[in-house]
Amino acid sequence: MNYQDILTQQKTFFSSQKTKDVRFRKRALQQLKDLLISNEELLCEAIDKDFGKSRFDTFTTEISFVLNDINYYLTNLNTLAKPENVATNLVNLPGSSKIYREPLGNTLVIGAWNYPYQLSLSPLVAAIAAGNTCILKPSEVAENTMKAMAKMINSHFPQEYLFVAEGGVAEVTEILKLQFDKIFFTGSPKVGKIVYEAAAKNMTPVTLELGGKSPAIVSPSANLEVAAKRIVWGKFLNAGQTCVAPDYILVDERIKDSLIDLLKKYIQKFNYTQESPQYTKIINERNFDRLVEIIDPKKIFFGGNYDRDKRYIEPTILHQINWSDAAMQEEIFGPVLPVITYNHFNEALQMVADHEKPLAAYLFSTDADEKKRFTEKISFGGGCINDVVMHLSNVHLPFGGVGNSGIGHYHGKFGFDAFSHQKSVLSRANWGEPNLKYPPYTDKKLKWIKKFL
Q1: Cα angle at 380 between 235 and 221, to 5 degrees?
Q2: Mode of pairing for the β-strands spanning 95-103 and 84-86
Q3: In the annotation, is 330 catalytic?
Q4: Residue 316: beta bridge partners?
Q5: Angle at which helices 22-38 and 40-51 pack, to 10 degrees?
Q6: pLDDT at site 291
């Protein structure tokens, strides 16, 4: 596959100005929406082959997210694409000022395997809405979903506009050598740095949606039943293979035993067995082996069982954990939940602050001062108070990381802006201008300028 030829075709197509027409963008979005609905069976079968995700989870955590994004842009695109009037300062009067959001051009989206439809197609939808062409490279780790997306899109859209590239590391390495106007990547910080370096060679702007160890802090003031129920759901959704899943718990020493008993209760209640439709497989043997390695048998409070042939790891709670344990050295990205205790709330905040800024952070508390300190004293991409993960479902909130967990953000208007250039235009009248800025410069002119400025 000659990716340079495809990019050249996309450059020519973008130069035709067709994608700048809002009506063209809406037709493309509607066509993609129709394809998602008519190909739901194909998409569900493919993801089931990759890691056994149920039809329920596939719709609620994958397809519905993309459909909601499309619906948002179909409803709001006229407003988003409209030039924005802004105030004009005194020295530029009479005149007017506007911000024009124009498409960046030819874009590349590199998706992730853990939510292969959502994390590939949602950025693609934003790129379409903003008026760009796009080459989409889904993750080859979820091979069947990659092929399903390629079949669905490549057979219904011209490749000079949208194209899904298949293949693995060799193919994406070749694609990254090309000169795009925007690269959007979802994946690990390690690979994100490779993408960032490749983009820098062409001065290409990037959005990097990465990851990190996202904490869930549980305060003595929390409703422990609610905390346990929501943490268990968010942690073991997709068998823990979620970039914003609670990676570990920080809990006050006084309530630790009560909390982990409740965590166990809800794991059992939600029935995460090998046969359960609400529990997925680990994506492959390499990740399976990595996860098993970090489970210290001496620190298992609950779970710890696994079956390599079926890529099943039972939801596992580890306690008596410290920062030197294997489970605390990198993002877990699986169904293993370490629990660390603290004695004072500020101690918990400091533990988070002492490590890389996470993609998400969560607090369970009913104390107003704790909520204030949580939001003000630690840096994280986004999060929730008294819930986990659900901030992603609000299209009006930007989603993205900070520091090692990412650069830039998207969803809703923020996705539109991620794939747009904000072009500033000042329009001046041909009358009413004083000669203060023109030579010859005099003390009197400077005196008047200081008054105005």
Answers
A1: 65
A2: antiparallel
A3: no
A4: 336
A5: 60
A6: 98
In the chain, the amino acid numbered 446 is: L
Task: List the structure tokens of 250.
Answer: 């920080």
pLDDT (tens digit per residue) in 99-157: 999 999 999 999 999 999 999 999 999 999 999 999 999 999 999 999 999 999 999 99
Tokens read off for 233: 């759901």
Distance CA 205, CA 418 (A): 9
Pick the CATH number of 3-210+406-425 from 3.40.605.10, 3.40.50.1980, 3.40.50.920, 3.60.150.10: 3.40.605.10
Write down the domain spans for the chain: 3-210+406-425, 215-400
- What's the CATH class of domain 215-400? alpha beta
Catalytic residue chosen out of the listed positions 62, 143, 209, 314? 209
**Is 384 among the residues known to form the active site?**
no
**Cα 225 to Cα 38, 135, 271, 395, distances in angstroms:** 40, 46, 17, 28
Choosing from 243, 331, 356, 370, the catalytic residue is: 243
What is the rounded distance in angstroms from the CA atom of residue 319 to the CA atom of residue 295? 11
**pLDDT band, residue 453 (cuts 50/70/90):** confident
Other CB atoms within 10 Å distance of the CB of residue 190:
10
* Cα gap 197→192, rounded to integer Å: 9
297-319: buried (b, 16+ CB within 10 Å) or exposed (e) per residue? eebbbbbbebeeeebbbbbbbbb
